[in-house]
């Protein structure tokens, strides 16, 4: 079992920057990849970024490429999301996930954090 806790979400002005963190505990040796997803008001949960164990594979959603950077340790104990040039459209609850591979589909992730709120104001 893997437990995940996100932190760092807050209110930020458009154009600003924010860093999110996720700490994993438990049987993290079973995790092959970790990622970030988000759910905006009235929208389905969507993929943001993912990283494989060892960092060999990194994927980003097209909407965040060039603005967000994912990082993590090779033991899958934590991941971060560095966000810059934030838009009001980035407003969402951001979730950390751990699973089988660095894919965009939620079906590949077995464990989820409770989420952290990011609000970007105009």
Short précis:
This protein has 122 residues and is mainly β.
SS-based structural class?
mainly beta
**How much helicity do the residues have?**
under 10%
Number of strands: 11
Q: How would you spell out the order of helices and strands?
A: EEEEEEEEEEE
Stretches with pLDDT under 50, minimum 5 residues? none
**Computed Rg:** 13 Å
* Beginning-to-end CA distance, first to last residue: 40 Å
Mean pLDDT: 97
Main beta sheet strand tally, sense and closure: 7 strands, mixed
Shape designation: globular
Q: How large is the count of helical segments?
A: 0
Verbal overview:
The model has no long low-confidence stretch (mean pLDDT 97). The chain is mainly beta and 122 residues long. It has no helices and eleven strands. The strands form two sheets. Strands 2, 4, 5, 6, 9, 10 and 11 form a seven-stranded mixed β-sheet that branches.
Give a quick set of tags describing it.
122 residues; mainly beta
List the helices and strands and how they pair.
Elements: E1 2-7, E2 11-13, E3 18-26, E4 33-39, E5 46-52, E6 58-60, E7 68-72, E8 78-83, E9 92-99, E10 109-112, E11 116-121
Parallel strand pairs: 2-11
Antiparallel strand pairs: 1-3, 3-8, 4-5, 4-9, 5-6, 7-8, 9-10, 9-11
